[in-house]
């Protein structure tokens, strides 16, 4: 009986190790809007929509990860190939570093033309706003949508 318990404990330990290693590779995806969506913008000055992301990282406000390695927040840019949709004086359009979670506000009102074809890009960042890297590349996700 003791041998079965020890074998089970060893198997569980190895299984846990394997799971931890698989989870160590950060993931990030945009759940909504889906690529190719046509989205109606509101009449508010920010012309904002919510972007929902999914990650195997815990998404908390910046500075609240307390050394946890699988923790961070998301930086978002509209039309990330340039800076035309960024908030004035910022290198992004939105972050969830103030609140954490899987919802980020995309502020199309900062774009020269809010309506039209746009790419929404998100980047996974650590507690100190530095990009999370995998194989030397930042963990990102991108979708293209049309706004009207």
UniProtKB/TrEMBL annotation:
Record's signal peptide: 1-22
Organism name: Mesorhizobium wenxiniae
Protein name as it appears in the record: DUF4399 domain-containing protein
Highest classification ranks of the organism: Bacteria, Pseudomonadati, Pseudomonadota, Alphaproteobacteria, Hyphomicrobiales
Origin: domain of life: Bacteria
Keywords linked to the UniProt accession: Signal
